[in-house]
Amino acid sequence: MAAEIRLFPCLTDNFGYLIHDPATKATASIDAPEAAPIVNALEREGWTLTDILITHHHGDHVGGVAELKQKYGCRVVAPHSAKIADADLRVGQGDVVKVGELLARVLETPGHTLDHISYVFDSEKALFAADTLFSIGCGRVFEGNYPMMWDSLLKLRALPDDFKLYCGHEYTAANIKFALTVEPANAALKARAEEVTRLRAANKPTVPTLLGEEKKANVFLRADEPSVAAGVRMKGRDAAEVFGELRERKNKS
Ligand SMILES: [Zn+2]
């Protein structure tokens, strides 16, 4: 039986995510920005929380963990990180986490933070990339460096085109505005811009998106494309350097 995935807003612009295994009734929350919207979503569905899969230590991703653990006695899965206390299971690159009968593969994707991991549910073709990869954007590089973050993005880019990206924040409209300054002639990007305008006007989320579409339209996944290098006047330069320049420009935009 296919998993059921729910997404809902948390805090200002975070996404909350639940993934539910109908066979075993196990339900995981990917991160826990705050408890209340997650409890509401669980009650709406009649689900009980069995697991929280943490991606990184930032407060807007772990703020609800203690309250949810207290309420449901759920298992907390987290990266190897001194900045995250009280995990029941620590995971790193290549580990597989079971949510009921669902399997989540762990990819280490450092850069935004050093402890950042992403979860891949291959059977559901679902990637939970939190603050590493956004739709038409990527996370700020707070703790790592640009080559490290570029390597992390390459790991995610290697996943198949028909996988869905579930990211940590609703930042897509602002990301598109920036991306169009780099690749104004990118047809996939222009199409995505129109789609996002429609979705936002209808007050709908812009995720999930297909990874294949992101590969065509997300300039941060395209730092090794000549058109992107040209867009930041760095033709012929190393992809990690082009990526760094993109990130610097986005920070100032
Ligand atoms: Zn973060």
Question: What does this entry look like structurally?
Answer:
This protein is α/β, with parallel strands linked by helices and 253 residues long. It has helices at residues 35-45, 59-62, 65-72, 146-157, 172-182, 187-201, 211-217, 226-231, 239-252; strands at residues 4-10, 14-20, 27-30, 51-53, 75-79, 89-91, 96-99, 102-108, 117-121, 126-130, 133-134, 137-138, 164-167, 209-210. The strands form 3 sheets. A 6-stranded mixed β-sheet has the order 1-2-3-4-5-6, with helices on one face. Helix 4 (146-157) packs across helix 9 and helix 5 packs antiparallel against helix 6 (187-201). The longest helix is centred in the C-terminal third of the chain and has 15 residues, at 187-201. The mean pLDDT is 97. It binds zinc ion.
Task: Sum up the overall morphology in one term.
Answer: globular
Instruction: Trace the largest sheet across and list its strands.
Output: 1-2-3-4-5-6
Could you state the order of secondary-structure elements as H and E? EEEHEHHEEEEEEEEHEHHEHHH
Q: Approximately how much beta-strand content do the residues carry?
A: 15-25%
Mean of residue pLDDT values: 97
From the alpha carbons, calculate the radius of gyration and give it in angstroms. 18 Å
Number of helices: 9
The helix-and-strand class reads alpha/beta
The count of DSSP E runs of length 2 or more, i.e. the number of strands, is: 14
Bound molecules: zinc ion
Counting copies of identical and different chains, the oligomeric state is single chain
N→C terminal distance: 44 Å
| Helix share, percent | 25-40%
Main sheet overview: 6 strands, mixed
Low-pLDDT residue spans: none
